[in-house]
Write a sequence for this structure.
C-alpha cells in the first residue's frame, strides 16, 4: 500500500480553506483520507474581539470574498437580535435580493471552475462571461463588483431605484436563458457526464451522520435548507422550491446548483414585484445590550452559523463562526474513498470549497522505495489523459 | 385544550427526563432554545435527543473563555434541523476535560478538534485530537482564543 | 540577442498566480481578468501552472504563517529575471486582517515586490493596468 501525501498550498486560484489531504491508497484506489487545514487560518474570531461591532461587519465580509453577503447578513441579524429589533420590511426584501444575487454569482463561478477541472475550458469561459452580468448588477446597486457591503446593523445601506429594478429584471431574463442553456449542456454533454456520474457517491445515511450541509446534502436527497427550516429576513413570504436530487453523486451536485440558480432568479423577480416601500435602516445604539444569540443563514455552500455574545462593551465578547465548507469536510473524506486518483479534482470540487485546492502531490511508494512530486496541473493532466485512454473501461 | 409550541414542548420533555440536572433553560426566539447542564449530563442529554427527537445534526461547538472556566455550547438541530437546541456547559480552565460526543454524532469530529486547538479543551475518547488549523510551528500549550493570550508586537 | 529576448519578454509575460491566505475576492477578480470580458490574454499574458515557466508572480492575500515558507520557495523556484505583483490591499499591507494573530501582513515582508495594486477587492481593470505598468518598467530597464 503506498501513501500519497498531498501538501496543499493555494498555488491554484482562490481557496477559502486550502487543505492538506493525506491519502492512503491500495494501488490507485483511495482507501482512507485525513484532512489538515490551516493555510488560510487568519485568526478572525480573535480579530473580531479586538474590533468594534461595526468594524466587525467589514471583517466578516472578508472571511470569504465569494459568499461575503451571507456573512454580513448573518452577523448583522445576530447583532440586531441582541438589540431585539427587526429591521424594516423593505430592508429585509433588499437583503433577500442581494443574497440571491450572490448565490447566482457563486454557483455560476463554481460551474465554470468545474468545467476547468474537467478540462472543459470553453464551458468555463462562457459561464464566467455570463457571470459578469451579475457582477454588473451588484456594481449598479452598490458600487462594488464583489463585496457590496450592503448590510449594516439595522438594515441596508443602499436602496434600489425603479431604474435599477428594470436593469435587474432584464439581467434576470438574460441569465435565465443562459442558465437553461448550461443545464442542457450539463445534461447532454458526454465530457461532463462520464466524469461526474456515479463518482463521489455519498449516500443519504452517510450525509446525515456526517452532518453535510448545502447542495452536498441536497444532492443526497436530504431536504434541508435554512431558508425553509429556519427562515430569516422574510424568506417565508417568498414562495420557491427546495431543490433536491437523489443520485448522491457529483452529477447530482451539479444539477442542484444549476437548479438553484433558476430558483434564485425567480426569488429575485418575486421580491422586486412585492418590494414594500418604507425606510431601509433603523438607527440603533452603537453597542448592543448584554446577551447572546445564534443565527443561521443559507450561504451558497450551505448552512452558515454565527454565535455572538455581548457583555455590553464596545467590542464583542465572542463571535463564533461556522462556515459550510468546514461542515462538508468529513463528507468529502468519505466521498473520496473507493475512487481513483483521477477522480480527486472532480470530487473535491463538487463540495465547492471555493476552489479545488491541491497544489503539489508528494507520492511515496514504500514498496518500490520511490518518491515523486506532481503539481495540480499535472494531476489534472493525468486525470484527463486517464479518461481519454478509456478510463474505467 | 391549549396547544404548546415546539420550543415549550422540548423544554418540558427535557425537564421531565433530567429534572434538576437542567440548571437553566430559556426560549431565546422561535426555533432557538438554550439549556445549561453540568458536563456529565451532556452525553445523556445528546443521547436522549437522538433517541426521542431524531437528533442527527450538530451545527458546531463554541468555546468561550470566561476566566476561571471555559463555557462550551453544543449547537444541535432537531426536528429535521428546524429547531436549534443550544446546550451550554462549563469546564474548569485548569482542567478542561469533557467526554467526546463523536460516538453519538460523528459530524462533531472536526468541531472538537477546533475547540481543542484554539482553547485547549481535551475531549476524552476522541479518535484523533490532532492540530486542526493552527500552523505546524505554533508553540504547544498556547491557545490563542483564551482571553489571557495577547499577540505580541502588535 | 539580448534585446530580442528583452523584447519578447515584454511582449508576452507569463504569469504564475498564488493566493497566500486571502478571502478569495481578489483571486476571482484576477481570474476574471483572464475571462472574455477583460481578456488579458490579448496582451500576450498567459497563466502558467509551474514556477519554472513564469516571469511574473501575482500574489493576493495577507500572508498567513503557514503559507509564508511556501511563498518564499515558489519565489526561489522562479528563474531570473522575475517580477512580483502584489494584488489587493491585503497583499500590500495586510488589509483588514492587520492585527490578526496568524497573519504576517503584506507580502513584502517575505519577498520583494515590484508593483502594488490596491483595492478590496482589486478590479480586473486595475490588474491590467498594474501589469501594463510592470511592462513599462521592463521597457525602461531594457
Amino acid at each position: 500500500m503506498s501513501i500519497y501525501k498531498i501538501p496543499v498550498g493555494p498555488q491554484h486560484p482562490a481557496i477559502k480553506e486550502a487543505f492538506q489531504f493525506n491519502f492512503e491508497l491500495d494501488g490507485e484506489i483511495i482507501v482512507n483520507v485525513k484532512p489538515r487545514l490551516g493555510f488560510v487560518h487568519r485568526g478572525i474570531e480573535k480579530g473580531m474581539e479586538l474590533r468594534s461591532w461595526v468594524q466587525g461587519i467589514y471583517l466578516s465580509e472578508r472571511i470569504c470574498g465569494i459568499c461575503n453577503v451571507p456573512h454580513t447578513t448573518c452577523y448583522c441579524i445576530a447583532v440586531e437580535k441582541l438589540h431585539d429589533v427587526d429591521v424594516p420590511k423593505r430592508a429585509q426584501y433588499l437583503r433577500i435580493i442581494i443574497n440571491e444575487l450572490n448565490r447566482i454569482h457563486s454557483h455560476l463561478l463554481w460551474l465554470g471552475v468545474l468545467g476547468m477541472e474537467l478540462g472543459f475550458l470553453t464551458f468555463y469561459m462562457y459561464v464566467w462571461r455570463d457571470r459578469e452580468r451579475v457582477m454588473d448588477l451588484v456594481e449598479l446597486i452598490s458600487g462594488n463588483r464583489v463585496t457590496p457591503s450592503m448590510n449594516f446593523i439595522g438594515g441596508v445601506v443602499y436602496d434600489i431605484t425603479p431604474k435599477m429594478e428594470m436593469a435587474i429584471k432584464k439581467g434576470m431574463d438574460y441569465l435565465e436563458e443562459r442558465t437553461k442553456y448550461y443545464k442542457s449542456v450539463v445534461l447532454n454533454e458526454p465530457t461532463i457526464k462520464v466524469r461526474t456520474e456515479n463518482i463521489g457517491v455519498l449516500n443519504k445515511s452517510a450525509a446525515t451522520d456526517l452532518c453535510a450541509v448545502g447542495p452536498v446534502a441536497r444532492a443526497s436527497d436530504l431536504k434541508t435548507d435554512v431558508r425553509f427550516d429556519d427562515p430569516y429576513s422574510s424568506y417565508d413570504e417568498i414562495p420557491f422550491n427546495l431543490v433536491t436530487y437523489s443520485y448522491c453523486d457529483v452529477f447530482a451536485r451539479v444539477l442542484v446548483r444549476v437548479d438553484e440558480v433558476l430558483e434564485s432568479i425567480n426569488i429575485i423577480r418575486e421580491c422586486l414585484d412585492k418590494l414594500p416601500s418604507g425606510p431601509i435602516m433603523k438607527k440603533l445604539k452603537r453597542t448592543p445590550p448584554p446577551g447572546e444569540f445564534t443565527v443561521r443563514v443559507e450561504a451558497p455552500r450551505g448552512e452558515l452559523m454565527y454565535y455572538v455574545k455581548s457583555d455590553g462593551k464596545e467590542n464583542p465578547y465572542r463571535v463564533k463562526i461556522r462556515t459550510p465548507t468546514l461542515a462538508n469536510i468529513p463528507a468529502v473524506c468519505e466521498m473520496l474513498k473507493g475512487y481513483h486518483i483521477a477522480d480527486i479534482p472532480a470530487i473535491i470540487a463538487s463540495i465547492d470549497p471555493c476552489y479545488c485546492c491541491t497544489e503539489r502531490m508528494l507520492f511515496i511508494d514504500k514498496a518500490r522505495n520511490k518518491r515523486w512530486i506532481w503539481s495540480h496541473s499535472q494531476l489534472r493532466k493525468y486525470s484527463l489523459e486517464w479518461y481519454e485512454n478509456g478510463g474505467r473501461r | 385544550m391549549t396547544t404548546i409550541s415546539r420550543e415549550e414542548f422540548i423544554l418540558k420533555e427535557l425537564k421531565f427526563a433530567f429534572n434538576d440536572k437542567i440548571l437553566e433553560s430559556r426560549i431565546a426566539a422561535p426555533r432557538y432554545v438554550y439549556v445549561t447542564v453540568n458536563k456529565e449530563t451532556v452525553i445523556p442529554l445528546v443521547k436522549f435527543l437522538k433517541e426521542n427527537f431524531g437528533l442527527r445534526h450538530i451545527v458546531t461547538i463554541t468555546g468561550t473563555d470566561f476566566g476561571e472556566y471555559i463555557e462550551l455550547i453544543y449547537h444541535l438541530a432537531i426536528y429535521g434541523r428546524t429547531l436549534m437546541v443550544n446546550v451550554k456547559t462549563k469546564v474548569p480552565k485548569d482542567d478542561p476535560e469533557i467526554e467526546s460526543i463523536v460516538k453519538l454524532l460523528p459530524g462533531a469530529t472536526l468541531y472538537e478538534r477546533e475547540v481543542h486547538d484554539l482553547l485547549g479543551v481535551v475531549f476524552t475518547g476522541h479518535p484523533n485530537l490532532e492540530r486542526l488549523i493552527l500552523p505546524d510551528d505554533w508553540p504547544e500549550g498556547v491557545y490563542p482564543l483564551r482571553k489571557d493570550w495577547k499577540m505580541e508586537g502588535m | 540577442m539580448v534585446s530580442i529576448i528583452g523584447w519578447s519578454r515584454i511582449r508576452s509575460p507569463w504569469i504564475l498566480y498564488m493566493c497566500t491566505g486571502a478571502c478569495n475576492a481578489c483571486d476571482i477578480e484576477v481570474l476574471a481578468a483572464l475571462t472574455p470580458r477583460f481578456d488579458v490574454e490579448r496582451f500576450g499574458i498567459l497563466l502558467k501552472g509551474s514556477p519554472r515557466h513564469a516571469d511574473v508572480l501575482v500574489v493576493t492575500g495577507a500572508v498567513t504563517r503557514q503559507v509564508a515558507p511556501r511563498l518564499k520557495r515558489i519565489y526561489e523556484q522562479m528563474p531570473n529575471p522575475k517580477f512580483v505583483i502584489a494584488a489587493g490591499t491585503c497583499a500590500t499591507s495586510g488589509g483588514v486582517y492587520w492585527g490578526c494573530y496568524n497573519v504576517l501582513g503584506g507580502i513584502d515582508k517575505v519577498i520583494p515586490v515590484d508593483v502594488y495594486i490596491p483595492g478590496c477587492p482589486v478590479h480586473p481593470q486595475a490588474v491590467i493596468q498594474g501589469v501594463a505598468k510592470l511592462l513599462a518598467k521592463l521597457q525602461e530597464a531594457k
Q: What stands out?
A: The mean pLDDT of chain B is 91. The longest strand of chain B covers residues 69-78. Helices of chain B lie at 6-18, 42-53, 109-119. DSSP finds three helices and seven strands in chain B.
